[in-house]
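Budget justification aside, the reviewers requested a transparent look at the raw inputs and outputs of the sequence design task funded under Objective 1. We therefore reproduce one unedited record. The lines immediately below are the C-alpha cells for a 417-residue chain.
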C-alpha cells in the first residue's frame, strides 16, 4: 500500500514528446506531478525527446545520441532522437512527430511492464502509441489531451476544416479517444470537446501552482540586468511565440501607450512566429519592448521576480476560451496579477485572482497604462491576491491525489473486467 491513503502504488509508463531537459524552457507540469507520485512510491518511466519544442534545438549533452537514460526527480527519463527543423516548415514538423511516435513506441517495448500507460497529445500522432503499448503489455491506458486537435489546427490556419488532412486527423482523434480507458484534460473547458470525440471517462488535472516567494535581492538583480528603473512597471509575457499566441496585439498595444508612461514589456520565449514579431518591433520601440531568447528555469524565476504584471495572450477563438496555459500558473505562483486577451476561462481566472481581461490592442494599452500608474503597494496587494487564489484552486497536493485516484481506478476496472 502507498503511504498516502489506501491507494496502491504501481508502475506508470508515460509518453510525452515535450518534456524539457533540466533547465531548458518548457512546461514542467508533468515532472512536478510525477516527482510527487514517485515520492508516494510509484515507479515512473517517461519517454520523451531532448529536442526542445520552443527552440527546436537539442542541448549539447544530448546531441549525437540516438537514445539516453537519466533519472530526474526520481523519474526515469528515456530520451529518444527526433529530426530537427521543426520551425522551418510544416513538413519537417510532421516528420518530427512521426519519428517520435515510432521511436517512443520502440523504446516503450524495451521497458518493464507498466500497470498503466499514459500518452500525452498533441502531437496527435503520438496518441497511437497508447493502444499499441496497452495491447503489448495488457494494461489500461490513459490519453491526455492538452489541446484539442484537429480543431486547434484550424484555429491557427494550419488546416482547413473541409480538407483531407483534417478529415484524417479527426478520424484518428475520435478513434484513439474512444479506445482510451480514460481521458485526462488540463482544463474543464476541454471536457465537452473530448466527449464529442468519444471520451466516456474524463478527469480534469490542471497544472500546479508552485510557490515562488518574493525575493527582493533577486528582483533587484534581475531588474538591473534588464536595465529597468525602480519606478518602471514591468509586464512579462512568458512562453511560446506561435501563430496562436497573437503577440501582434501586444506590439500594437505597446505603440498606443503614451511615451510618458513608465511601462516596460518583456517577452521571453520562442516559436514559429518569433521572427515575424522580432521584425515588427521598430528600433525606436526597443526602449519599451524587450524581446529575450528562450530562457532556462533559473532565468524564468529571475524574470518572474523582476515583473510586476503577467501577460497572457491567445488569438480569439472558442477553442482557446477553455485553455489554462502553464504561464498563468507561473504568474500566480510568483505573486503576479495578470492581464489576458482571452475570453472564457482565462478571463474568469484573471479577474477573480485580481488581474484583468481585455479584447483588443486599445484596451490592452489602457490596461498597461492603468497598471503602470498604480502604486507599488497596490500592485503587491493584487499579487498576494493572485497567489492566494492560485494555491486555493491549483495546489499540487490535490492534483496529485486526483491523478493517483484515476490511475488506481483504471487499474481496478481492467482487473475487474
Amino acid at each position: 500500500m502507498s503511504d498516502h491513503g489506501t491507494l496502491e502504488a504501481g508502475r506508470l509508463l508515460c509518453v510525452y514528446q515535450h518534456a524539457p531537459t533540466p533547465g531548458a524552457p518548457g512546461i514542467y507540469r508533468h515532472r512536478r506531478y510525477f516527482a510527487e507520485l514517485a515520492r508516494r512510491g510509484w515507479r515512473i518511466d517517461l519517454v520523451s525527446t531532448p529536442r526542445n519544442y520552443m527552440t527546436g534545438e537539442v542541448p549539447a549533452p544530448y546531441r549525437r545520441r540516438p537514445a539516453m537514460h537519466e533519472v530526474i526527480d526520481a523519474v526515469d527519463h528515456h530520451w529518444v532522437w527526433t529530426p530537427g527543423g521543426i520551425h522551418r516548415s510544416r513538413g519537417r514538423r510532421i516528420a518530427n512527430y512521426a519519428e517520435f511516435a515510432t521511436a517512443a513506441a520502440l523504446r516503450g517495448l524495451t521497458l518493464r511492464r507498466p500497470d498503466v500507460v499514459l500518452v500525452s497529445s498533441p502531437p496527435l500522432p503520438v496518441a497511437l502509441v497508447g493502444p499499441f503499448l496497452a495491447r503489448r503489455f495488457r494494461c489500461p491506458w490513459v490519453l491526455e489531451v492538452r489541446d484539442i486537435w484537429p480543431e486547434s489546427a484550424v484555429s491557427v490556419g494550419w488546416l482547413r476544416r473541409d480538407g483531407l488532412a483534417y478529415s484524417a486527423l479527426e478520424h484518428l482523434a475520435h478513434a484513439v479517444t474512444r479506445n482510451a480507458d480514460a481521458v485526462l484534460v488540463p482544463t474543464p473547458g476541454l471536457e465537452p470537446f473530448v466527449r464529442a470525440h468519444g471520451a466516456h471517462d474524463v478527469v480534469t488535472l490542471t497544472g500546479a501552482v508552485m510557490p515562488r516567494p518574493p525575493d527582493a535581492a533577486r528582483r533587484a538583480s534581475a531588474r538591473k540586468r534588464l536595465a529597468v528603473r525602480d519606478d518602471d512597471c514591468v509586464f512579462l509575457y512568458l512562453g511560446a511565440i506561435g501563430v496562436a499566441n497573437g503577440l501582434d496585439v501586444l506590439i500594437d498595444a505597446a505603440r498606443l501607450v503614451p511615451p510618458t508612461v513608465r511601462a516596460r514589456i518583456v517577452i521571453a520565449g520562442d516559436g514559429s512566429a518569433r521572427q515575424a514579431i522580432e521584425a515588427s518591433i521598430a528600433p525606436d520601440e526597443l526602449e519599451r519592448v524587450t524581446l529575450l531568447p528562450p530562457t532556462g528555469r533559473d532565468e524564468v524565476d529571475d524574470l518572474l521576480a523582476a515583473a510586476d504584471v503577467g501577460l497572457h495572450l491567445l488569438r480569439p477563438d472558442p477553442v482557446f476560451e477553455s485553455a489554462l496555459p502553464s504561464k498563468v500558473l507561473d504568474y500566480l505562483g510568483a505573486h503576479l496579477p495578470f492581464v489576458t486577451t482571452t475570453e472564457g476561462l482565462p478571463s474568469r481566472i484573471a479577474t477573480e485572482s485580481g488581474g484583468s481581461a481585455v479584447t483588443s490592442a486599445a484596451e490592452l494599452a489602457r490596461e498597461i497604462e492603468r497598471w503602470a500608474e498604480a502604486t507599488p503597494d497596490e500592485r503587491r496587494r493584487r499579487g498576494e491576491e493572485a497567489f492566494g487564489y492560485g494555491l486555493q484552486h491549483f495546489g499540487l497536493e490535490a492534483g496529485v491525489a486526483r491523478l493517483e485516484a484515476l490511475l488506481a481506478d483504471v487499474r481496478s476496472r481492467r482487473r475487474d473486467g
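The chain has 15 helices and 14 strands. The CA atoms of residues 62 and 124 lie 25 Å apart. Computational costs for records of this kind are itemized in the attached budget.
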